[in-house]
Amino acid sequence: MASKWIEIFTGSLEQKKQWRAYRARVAQLDAPYRDSAEAIERYLLYTGPADGDSLMPMLEDLIDLFEGAQADEIPVRSLVGDDPVEFVESFKQNYGLARWIDKEQQRLTGAIDQAERDQS
């Protein structure tokens, strides 16, 4: 019961466990894979889904991909291609999730609509 109250203020404890497990897996990668995974992670945190419930499965799939590439000795550039941004954008499309910017665009539209109603 207490954990439910704590989660209201701190967020999901399960997601925090998943995040720590994910970060531990990233730390185990060799440098080029780790550095690339961290760069993609950073990009996803800015442009990815709007909630942890959607982000964590993406990150877990990402680490699976990089662990597999490292095990099979696939170079990072062969994995992500010539355009890393295109790679990540395509990767995100597989999840069909709302992005932070989508939320902000809806918030902006709603604020303008409300301002217009208040003016009438």
What key phrases describe this protein's structure?
c-terminal domain of poly(a) binding protein; 7 helices; 120 residues; 80% helix; elongated; single chain; mainly alpha
SSE sequence, one letter per element: HHHHHHH
Q: How many structural domains does the protein architecture include?
A: 1
SS-based structural class?
mainly alpha
What would you call the shape?
A: elongated
Arithmetic mean pLDDT: 87
Strand content: under 5%
CATH fold node name: c-terminal domain of poly(a) binding protein
Rounded Rg: 18 Å
- Full CATH superfamily name: c-terminal domain of poly(a) binding protein
The CATH C-level class name: Mainly Alpha
Rounded to the nearest angstrom, the distance between the terminal CA atoms is: 47 Å
Number of strands: 0
Can you give the helix content as a percent range?
over 70%
Major beta sheet summary: none
Low-confidence stretches: none
Overview of this structure, please?
The chain has a single domain, classed as c-terminal domain of poly(a) binding protein (Orthogonal Bundle), CATH 1.10.1900.10. Helix 3 (31-47) packs antiparallel against helix 4 (52-71). The longest helix is centred in the middle third of the chain and has 20 residues, at 52-71. 80% of the residues lie in helices and 0% in strands. The radius of gyration is 18 Å and the shape is elongated. It is built from seven helices and no strands. The termini are far apart. By secondary structure, it is mostly helical.
Offer a quick outline of the entry.
By secondary structure, this protein is mainly α. The protein has helices at 2-10, 13-27, 31-47, 52-71, 76-80, 84-93, 100-119.
